[in-house]
Amino acid sequence: MSNPTLEALPSPIVEVPPHPIWPTLGAAQKSALKARIRDLLKARDAVLVAHYYTDGDIQALAEESGGYVADSLDMARFGAESDARTLVVCGVRFMGETAKILNPEKQILMPDLRATCSLDEGCPVEAFSAFCDAHPDHSVVVYANTSAEVKARADWVVTSSIALPIVEHLSARGEKILWAPDKHLGRYIQRMTGTDMLLWNGACVVHDEFKSFALERLRQLHPDAAVLVHPESPAAIVDQADLVGSTTQLIKAVVEMPNQAFIIATDAGIFWKMHQLAPHKTLLPAPTAGEGATCESCARCPWMAMNSLQNLEQVLNSGDQEIHIDPAVRERAVIPIQRMLDFARAHGIGGKRN
Ligand code: SF4
To answer: What is the pLDDT of residues 318-327, one digit of tens each?
Structure first.
């Protein structure tokens, strides 16, 4: 039986930016812009590595131009295996930092370095280090959605694709876990494994907004739809899931499950890949604002939305918006990331066919 969960004091309030509004492009403009980006990629010996939550145009261009679209585990793996001199990471800052940590010799560009993540912002290294220092008998496991400095303080880095088996592995060795920053994912893993875990009090601003009563009503309206939930969602949402999984696991479920309709509780950017792989299935977004709610949530990450074709072209022209990491931080941060990649390889976890 695990000990009761303890949480750190509330993490700092994270300021959420408004959604950027990009000028609408006509078909001819978009096609010309994509052609210019393809030329710039060639000229720079660069590839695009995009996350499933980015705009569909970016995901399509990444695939058309020899780049890659994936979850954060596979983005890291692809970046490490690519021969390109420059990786253009379309996602949020911790993904670019992970690419730099694994590939210090490569240039890592991002369309907008201000694209961050509420989990990363809510876990500043000074407070996190104090939390670790207060619990020296715990193994420190951090989610990939953290700064390079926080990773440098960790024993293990995990993504949602691999968090469960890694914690099971550590638990079987009798280790107690200090987990940061996502409390919902941490609680889910604790419930699934019974592991003794201390949780940081962070949350994703997108997944935290899913509403359980509204989801119950939607399920009643669509009784044959399977409910697919990302584990960054609150427990009341996870409890209604037919399947809980990482972005890659949710996409695979849409393709392979026999259901014709799905209710999806994760960032709506994922619909592009789901539609591409299962065009005849019906995808319904899980509700984010119950009646009377004041939030303006739309299940779209405001930081992921900072990636556009327009600023992608700009960064390929200018070469600014480059990720740099202090070498001393990098030297420590690479150890827990490499540990995760080695564990994934040894256990056959990850990859788009898994
Ligand atoms: S969707 Fe949530 S976890 Fe993902 S980058 Fe945005 S804020 Fe972070």
So the answer is: 999 999 999 9
Instruction: Assess whether the C-beta atom of 265 lies below 6 angstroms from ligand 1.
Output: no
pLDDT of residue 80: 86
Distance of CA 318 to the CA centre of its chain: 27
- DSSP line for 165-218: HHHHHHHHTT-EEEEESBHHHHHHHHHHH---EEE--B--TTGGG--HHHHHHH
| CA 301–ligand 1 middle distance (angstroms) | 6
Residue 219 has pLDDT above 60, yes or no: yes
Ligand 1 mean position to 25 CA, how many Å?
Answer: 26
Q: What does the pLDDT look like over 192-214, one tens digit per residue?
A: 999 999 999 999 999 999 999 99
Q: Determine which residue's CA is closest to atom 5 belonging to ligand 1.
A: 117
CA distance 308 to 316: 12
Burial class (CB in 10 A: 0-12, 13-18, 19+), 175: middle
Distance from the Cα of residue 343 to its chain's centroid: 19
Residues 285-302, mean pLDDT to the nearest whole number: 72
Question: Ligand 1 test: best mutation among 52, 205, 209, most atoms within 8 Å of CB?
Answer: 205
Please, are residues 53 and 207 in contact by the beta-carbon 8 Å criterion? no
CA of 117 to the centre of ligand 1 (A): 5
Task: Please tell me the distance between residue 205's alpha carbon and the centre of ligand 1 in angstroms.
Answer: 7
**Number of the ligand 1 atom closest to the C-alpha atom of 92:** 5
